[in-house]
Amino acid sequence: MEKVCPLCNALQAIVETCPYCGGKMVDGGSISNYLGPYSPYMDKESLPLQSEDYCLHVIYCPVCAYDTRMALALVAI
Ligand SMILES: [Zn+2]
Ligand SMILES: [Zn+2]
Q1: Where on the tree of life does the source sit, at the highest rank (predicted)?
Q2: Is the pLDDT of residue 72 over 60?
Q3: Distance 53 CA to ligand 1 centre (A)
Q4: Nearest ligand to the C-alpha of residue 27?
Q5: Helices marked H in 1-77
């Protein structure tokens, strides 16, 4: 049995709505895509990037540009 991220594998869609404008949040991809020397996501309060049980995603609102992070529980396939 293999554990995969449902979002990375298109098994699940984001159902969050933006807390500011009510727009539909969209997946910005796994947070590992965002990490770099100048990344605004490099902060002390980050959740652990590597986890056996979760895949961290950036989700954002295309309407007002609000973004947040979401930990997706991996699912067994
Ligand atoms: Zn993922
Ligand atoms: Zn918004």
Answers
A1: Bacteria
A2: yes
A3: 11
A4: 1
A5: none
70-to-1, 3, 19, 58 alpha-carbon distances in Å: 24, 18, 14, 6
Overall domain count for the chain: 1
- What integer is the mean pLDDT of 10-21? 94
What range does the domain containing 35 cover? Answer: 3-76
Token pair of 34, please?
């965002």
Q: How confident is the model at residue 40 (pLDDT cuts 50, 70, 90)?
A: low
Q: Is 29 left (phi over 0), alpha (psi -120 to 50) or beta?
A: left
Per-residue confidence (pLDDT) for residue 32, from 0 to 100: 74
Q: How far is the CA of 22 from the centre of ligand 1 (A)?
A: 23
C-alpha closest to that of 17 among 46, 75, 60: 60
